[in-house]
Design goal:
It is built from 2 helices and no strands. The chain has about 100 residues and is mainly α.
């Protein structure tokens, strides 16, 4: 019975070791694959610095257009507020005349 228990324990340890070994191999392959995917991008970055300069200029232009649009919306809202304030003044003066 003792020999059988030891044999079963040994078998479990061997099985566990092989499972872990397989996991390690899978992780190594996954790591290598990720390195392969990232490495070409790094080389490409070195070769296409002009691309990033152009891209930054395009983003800057887009942000400038968005800023201009927001400025025009702000101006429109300020005009509306001014009109509403004038209307409020008129209503208040009419209200005072009634009292």
């Amino acid at each position: 019975a003792v020999v059988s228990t030891q044999s079963t324990g040994k078998h479990k340890l061997i099985k566990d070791f092989k499972e872990r070994e397989t996991k390690v191999e899978k992780l190594k392959k996954k790591y290598e694959l990720l390195l392969f995917r990232v490495a070409p991008e790094q080389e490409e970055e070195e070769k296409t610095q002009a691309y990033y300069v152009i891209r930054a200029a395009q983003e800057k232009e887009e942000l400038q257009r968005e800023g201009d649009k927001l400025d025009s919306e702000i101006d429109k809202v300020l005009k509306e507020i001014g009109g509403l304030q004038n209307t409020l003044k008129i209503l208040n003066s009419q209200n005072e005349k009634l009292h």
